[in-house]
């Protein structure tokens, strides 16, 4: 910047150019606003969907499952009278206790069963759980929509908790009675103590909770355990699966990535699509600003020539046009962030009626401050780059050549 030319003077000239071309300046600001708004709305919505699915599927299910290997003969039976239980469960518990990446683990006994209500009967499975350890695996308290207290609901030996989709199929609610028929022919009259919802039909359609001790006694297999569910401190680190294969060679170990491959791939595709489209919109807005500022340079060639003849340096000219682009970018980005929040809030309160896969009352939206900051920063950065090249071009104008052509 020239010594005799103050920053205030340059900023004043820059704003005079903006005022002189109000329509173009407004269109450029509107382009940034729409770009940032679309970016924020898409990021909020898509990450909101991903977070909802993660919470419902991954947080509502174990990160790893240890189960007993099936015998070839027993695997051919559709409705076995004996379940395959884990052997040397004490050895398994000792091994798991020593692993640093394990947050908690819980035993389950799972058996096929037929549930019979007054209006319907369905084949399925019964999840026998130990409430004290199971509640450390799944935060079922906040998922209960009927009944209170996970521990207290399973105190009675005939109490059962049902997923909301399963309860609807059986046409039962809290307090109603069911009949459970087990593979060994034994049956028991149950009372629906509570109904829960994970928000995913594939879970709510089959998941049940029942006292493990009662199920063991009914099956005549005391202390039998068929599955051990694990919660990891770092869910992405599934190296335990390989480490456990040697000391526990008689078991099957399945991690969450194997069980939810479709959702994992879907999340990656949505993330790539969301970020790609969102940034592309901001770039399109940047090209619009470039065209507007470039046309300003062409129309202001004479003014630029005059400024250079009275002592304005090339850097001063660049600074004038950068002030314009920063003003447009900052104003448009702030308006875009505000409008993005308003639209996101409206979407988050819009009712969503669907029972095909997701059970949720309203559209899931993620209000993370980082996305708003990223949208504003990227919006301003785009306009700065869009303004730099025309300003660089403007600074190279030869005042002699322009003045001769007047």
Topology:
Elements: H1 7-20, H2 22-58, E1 64-68, H3 72-75, H4 89-97, E2 102-116, E3 121-129, H5 131-137, E4 144-146, H6 150-153, E5 159-163, H7 164-170, E6 177-181, E7 187-196, H8 201-204, E8 208-211, H9 212-219, E9 227-232, H10 240-243, E10 251-255, H11 256-259, H12 261-299, H13 301-309, H14 314-348, H15 369-395, H16 399-404
Parallel strand pairs: 3-8, 5-7
Antiparallel strand pairs: 1-9, 1-10, 2-3, 2-6, 2-9, 4-7, 5-8, 6-7
Helix pairs in contact: 1-14, 2-12, 2-14, 2-15, 12-15, 14-15
In words, what does this structure look like?
This protein folds into 2 domains: 198 residues, no CATH class; 195 residues, no CATH class. The radius of gyration is 32 Å and the shape is elongated. Strand 2 and strand 3 form a beta hairpin. Strands 2-3-8-5-7-6 form a 6-stranded mixed barrel. The protein is α+β, with helices and mostly antiparallel strands. 35% of the residues are buried. The mean pLDDT is 80. The chain starts with 6 loop residues before the first helix and ends with a helix. Helices cover 54% and strands 17% of the residues. It has 16 helices and 10 strands.
